[in-house]
User: Which sequence fits this backbone?
């Protein structure tokens, strides 16, 4: 993935492809990352594998947790991403996992907390105020982990993410890692790399159908695909 201040695609880069199709009035939305030279560098592979592990954890939650709420899926992503990024050494050891996740949960009203603490997150039930170091994860993945999917790519934007997801609803699961070149908190070899994995999920009466499950996403499978 290249950021806006980049000078084009270079030999050692990875390219993020976010695409989909329209069939009979319904849309899809899928994201994968491909190394330009056919193989990931060690840093790229570490990020890709860490992100794939997060995606696998999130898809297990989607399959097992009921009632499922997209707001709670986001919090699960933050925790899993924080843990994995520390394990691969993206951040210095002086930062703990607890400092990377959102802290100081409160049940006070959303509006009053946002006015008092602009740097907050609302998950539908609680407001989370972040420590300075907790913002590191938000800088790495500044977007939500999911959006509804249907007749539009970002369907029913007016429907909140803190309500139970019912059978018949389709949504995305899309954790991302974006390390800007000017991110001095990250180790140098990781800077300038951006990745996202996005799958489409349909909730059924008996569970879920991950409709993009046959699309390669593991680093080794992506590299094999690049050789074809």
Assistant:
């Amino acid at each position: 993935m290249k950021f806006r201040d980049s000078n084009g695609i270079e030999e050692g880069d990875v390219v993020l492809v976010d695409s989909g199709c329209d069939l009979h009035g319904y849309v899809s939305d899928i994201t994968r990352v491909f190394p330009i030279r056919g193989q990931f560098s060690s840093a790229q592979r570490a990020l890709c594998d860490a992100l794939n592990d997060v995606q696998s954890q999130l898809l297990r939650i989607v399959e097992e947790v009921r009632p499922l709420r997209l707001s709670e899926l986001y919090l699960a992503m933050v925790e899993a991403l924080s843990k994995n990024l520390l394990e691969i050494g993206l951040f210095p050891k002086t930062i703990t996992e607890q400092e990377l996740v959102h802290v100081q949960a409160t049940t006070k009203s959303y509006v009053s907390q946002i006015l008092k603490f602009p740097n907050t997150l609302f998950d539908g039930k609680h407001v989370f105020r972040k420590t300075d170091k907790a913002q590191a994860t938000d800088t790495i993945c500044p977007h939500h982990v999911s959006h509804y999917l249907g007749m539009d790519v970002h369907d029913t934007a007016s429907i909140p993410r803190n309500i139970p997801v019912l059978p018949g609803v389709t949504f995305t699961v899309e954790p991302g890692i974006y390390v800007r070149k000017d991110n001095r908190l990250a180790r140098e070899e990781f800077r300038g790399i951006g990745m996202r994995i996005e799958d489409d999920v349909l909730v059924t009466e008996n569970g879920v159908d991950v409709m993009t499950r046959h699309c390669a996403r593991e680093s080794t499978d992506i590299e094999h695909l690049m050789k074809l």
